[in-house]
Amino acid sequence: MIGLAASLLLLAHGRVAGISGILGGILTRNEAVAWRVAFLAGLAVGGLAIAATFPATMSMAGSRPLPLLLVSGVLVGFGTRLGAGCTSGHGVCGLSRRSPRSLVAVVTFMATGFASATALHVVTR
Predict the structure, then answer these.
(1) DSSP states of the chain
(2) If both were cysteines, with which of 32, 61, 89, 90 could 105 make a disulfide (CB 3.0 to 4.6 Å apart)?
(3) pLDDT-derived band of residue 75, with 50, 70 and 90 as boundaries?
């Protein structure tokens, strides 16, 4: 469904479905806001629908302490700015458009994610 939504957004509006770019466009108000709000609202409503239909999919078992999650979120935001896009923009949209920059970004995201998860696992054992 993510690929379908990304394809429809690109075909209908000529826009890439990178969540950081969509959110950034709302915050800076430099471009049209209505479709961005609708797209993000659709993500939230979809998540809520899944949570209501299949509550086990949203289980927080084994979750991390809030301060660690906050620091992680800030680091993800920093990486998004540094990488000129987020995983959805590069992974779903960039790779499908055969963007070399997106390929490098996705490999970097994945390698960093694997390294971080392994380090966290080793440290918290």
Answers:
(1) -HHHHHHHHHHHH-----HHHHHHHHHH--S--HHHHHHHHHHHHHHHHHHHH-GGGG--TTPPPHHHHHHHHHHHHHHHHHTTS-HIIIIIIIHHTT-HHHHHHHHHHHHHHHHHHHHHHHHT-
(2) 90
(3) confident
